[in-house]
Write a structure and sequence with these properties.
The chain is mainly α. The chain has one domain. Helices cover 88% and strands 0% of the residues. The protein has 6 helices and no strands. It has helices at 2-5, 9-38, 44-56, 58-99, 101-115, 120-131. Helix 3 packs across helix 4 (58-99) and helix 5 (101-115) packs antiparallel against helix 6 (120-131). The longest helix has 42 residues, at 58-99. The chain is elongated and about 80 Å long.
């Protein structure tokens, strides 16, 4: 208990603020570097110069990058999210259009049952599997 008395509450609070500030800064640094290396509008030397600036003068480099490229960072991120959503939607449409789902499977099984290719027990089995 003696140790707790030597470290008052405000010191604990200040330590927590400093810790979370470092976490936030590292998060911003990683975000800046991810944006920098995903860009296609600047070449390798431009990326190398920005990386060197961000790593040599860390706080100033990150702040300058955010001020200079903040709006375009948001636009690139929004475009990337929209492209990903469009790709996912296209994939879902292609999968559902090809397979048709459980109803199409049951309809094909019903056609096989009507043609005599399968019996009623096999139809029920296919129906249960399609609905499962």
């Amino acid at each position: 208990m003696y140790l707790a008395a030597d470290y008052p509450f405000l010191d604990i609070f200040w330590t927590m603020i400093i810790f979370f500030a470092w976490v936030a800064w590292f998060w911003i640094l990683i975000t800046v570097l991810m944006d920098l290396f995903s860009r296609h509008d600047i070449g390798g030397w431009g990326k190398a110069a920005w990386t060197l600036f961000v790593l040599v003068v860390p706080f100033l480099g990150v702040l300058v990058y955010l001020i200079a490229e903040g709006k375009s960072m948001a636009e690139r991120r929004n475009k990337q999210v929209a492209d990903t959503e469009a790709a996912i939607d296209d994939r879902i449409r292609s999968v559902t259009a090809d397979g048709g789902g459980a109803a199409a499977e049951i309809a094909r099984a019903k056609e096989l049952l009507d043609s005599g290719a399968i019996d009623q027990a096999e139809f029920e089995k296919i129906k249960r599997l399609a609905l499962a």
